[in-house]
Design a protein that fits this description.
Layout lengths: L2 H10 L6 H18 L10 H13 L11 E5 L7 H7 L4 E6 L2 H14 L4 E5 L2 H7 L4 E7 L4 H8 L3 E11 L3 H14 L2 E10 L6 E9 L11 H6 L3
Parallel strand pairs: 1-2, 1-4, 2-3, 4-5
Antiparallel strand pairs: 5-7, 6-7
Length: about 230
């Protein structure tokens, strides 16, 4: 996906990208590639691939979900996906990224500064530990390519306010993961509102964006320690 194709593809979905936003995406790409030489941020480094498989892919959730001035917590975002491309498009979003690797947090803090993004925080912590002091504080929790849905639900839903959302960006195994996670999502106070399946570029690039609404409070016993979540998903 060239830069022009990126602009046109978003325009087709009603999202107008300004010249300033394209400057930010361009700088994001160059910082990503530069830092990737020092640490493992992504296996995707070719410009056209980054625009398609990181930037555009991150924004696809906005085709079916309305972003405005919400507070977002992005779990295990790594190099900032999906929350930073969304923040560039919707500058009024308040973004908190939680990742357990301190090196990635250093990268993200540098990125915020260079892209001049305000209301952004990057915190080095495990998601289940972060939830202890941040229960039900966010309008939206997000995760992309971090873990299976029946693990992510317990890491993300406790952070979401009642009537807020957990947004999960998934790949070709999404339907299987949804079936695995249904009971757990319900137990944690969530309800699957919508799932949108599509091909990103071709049939080999299957995607599924899952929109889960938080309908009731999560029991205080969740999230458990990660070892327990992984060993015995809800």
């Amino acid at each position: 996906m060239t830069k022009q194709q990126f602009i046109e593809a978003l325009q087709e979905k009603g999202i107008k990208v300004t010249p300033r936003q394209m400057e930010q995406f361009d700088l994001y790409y160059h910082i990503l590639v530069e830092w990737n030489e020092k640490m493992n941020l992504t296996a995707i480094t070719k410009e056209e691939d980054v625009y398609l498989k990181h930037f555009y892919d991150s924004i696809t959730i906005a085709f079916d979900f309305s972003f405005k001035d919400q507070s977002i917590v992005d779990i295990g975002a790594g190099a900032g996906f999906p929350s930073i491309p969304l923040k560039i498009i919707y500058p009024e979003l308040q973004v908190t990224i939680v990742d357990s690797l301190t090196k990635r947090i250093t990268f993200l803090q540098h990125l915020f500064q260079q892209l001049q993004l305000d209301n952004c925080k990057a915190i080095s912590a495990r998601a289940e530990e972060f939830a202890v002091d941040h229960r039900e504080q966010y309008d939206i929790a997000m995760a992309r390519a971090v873990a299976r849905l029946n693990i992510l639900d317990e890491l993300c839903l406790p952070l979401v306010k009642v009537d807020g959302y957990f947004l999960s960006l998934k790949g070709r195994q999404a339907e299987v993961e949804i079936q695995e996670a249904k009971k757990g999502i319900e137990k944690l106070g969530g309800k699957i509102e919508k799932q949108i399946s599509f091909n990103l570029a071709n049939e080999d690039d299957q995607r599924c964006n899952i929109i889960i609404k938080k309908t009731k409070q999560t029991q205080k016993t969740y999230p458990r320690m990660f070892s327990k979540i992984k060993k015995q998903p809800l």
